[in-house]
Amino acid sequence: MVFDTIKNGIIPTSAFKDNAGVLAAASTWVMWCTKHSAHVSSTYSLISAVAGVGVATAGASQVQWGWNGGKGLGAVFAGLGMAPAISAGFAGTIFILIKLVVHLRHNPVPWAVFTSPFFFLIAGTICTLSIVYKGSPNLGLNKKPSWYVAAVTMGTGGGVALLAALFFFVPFIYQRVVRKDQGVKCYMFPLGPLLFRRAVVAEADHAKLPNYAVVQDDDASKTRVSTDAGSDSDGDVKTPHIRGDNEKALTMTETAEIQKTYKELRAEGQEKVLFKMRAERGPFGWAMRTLHDNPTGPGQVYERDNLLIIAKRLPAMVVAGLLYGVHYEIHAAQSGIAGTLEGERMKRVYAQAKKYPDEVVHTYSFVQVLTACTASFAHGANDTGNSVGPWAVIYSA
């Protein structure tokens, strides 16, 4: 859809005649933004740039400013208002359902577990519908009869819900968050209903779950207590000297010395995440420790010492590359860095938000796997169209 819009929807390729090379300018802005890490929409940047080049080359009368069968500039920019509104409608409806069915219950955790297949049904149906209408035009899925589209989308959503309810999800998550069995491992989910009959091996007071808090406590960020506690001349124990935000004893020089730049604070936050990864057991922890303890030395990579280090790092790089996404603590990494304006802003926002049990959040995080896969598919198709579209216009012209 994006490819076809850029290629034919905005301006006819015949308008460029023998001057198709000017379309190369359409990618200049996006390339500059990419190089300088500027946050822009590649779709709207490229489409606007193609329109601008069309005005400069062939005149404003050649540009399709209206709807043009859903491919003109009017249709494209209408999406700026329509897409967020539609997304907000879906998201608001689903959240209200979850709130009424789960969050308002006295004990929301079992409700979250046993109603999750219904939300797998909703997510699977919506995601399938998106793929049907946004998939490859060569498949012609969007040209099928309405009953066919409805059957495919509902059938896929129902199949996902059935698999979640009876086989792969509900038994596994029930054992983990309701029975709080810390002996359940991720690789046990294929056991399906057999997990209901599994005796609790390692029961605990709370389920073993990731920390989903936006603002996470960390011992390293707590107020430091100096070690100058002792006794005064009267034998009384002196109160430890606390260095907090309101401490007035620090001189301006000392304050300047302990202040850190935003970049340093960000680096410290990232290092905390990596430190936790290196402390893990198993292949991933070994790989992260190996990479950390064996940095390449000075000189060229083909020197003997560096070749030996690279030979040692190579297996660890493969293991870390395969498992990094599974072990990366996204909540800890994006929770805001303590001491920065970003961190303080997130604390203020999160302080006003209602907190729900981590077991409920953990249960619905699996539903997000479906939406994340669909989003990856949609963004991949969109970005491919962005990249190929201008070149297709040049080739056709």
UniProtKB/TrEMBL annotation:
Segments passing through the bilayer: 44-67, 73-97, 109-133, 145-170
Keyword terms: Membrane, Phosphate transport, Transmembrane, Transmembrane helix, Transport
Chief location category: membrane
GO MF terms held by the record: phosphate transmembrane transporter activity
Subcellular location field: Membrane
One cellular component (GO) term of this entry: membrane
Alphabetical GO biological process terms: phosphate ion transmembrane transport
UniProt cross-references to InterPro entries, sorted A to Z: Phos_transporter (IPR001204)
Signal peptide (UniProt feature, chain positions): none
Chain residue ranges for the region called Disordered: 223-243
Pfam families listed in its UniProt record: PHO4
Protein topology in the membrane: Multi-pass membrane protein
PANTHER family assigned: PHOSPHATE TRANSPORTER
Function text: Sodium-phosphate symporter.
Family: Belongs to the inorganic phosphate transporter (PiT) (TC 2.A.20) family.
Protein name: Phosphate transporter
Upper classification of the organism: Eukaryota, Fungi, Dikarya, Ascomycota, Pezizomycotina
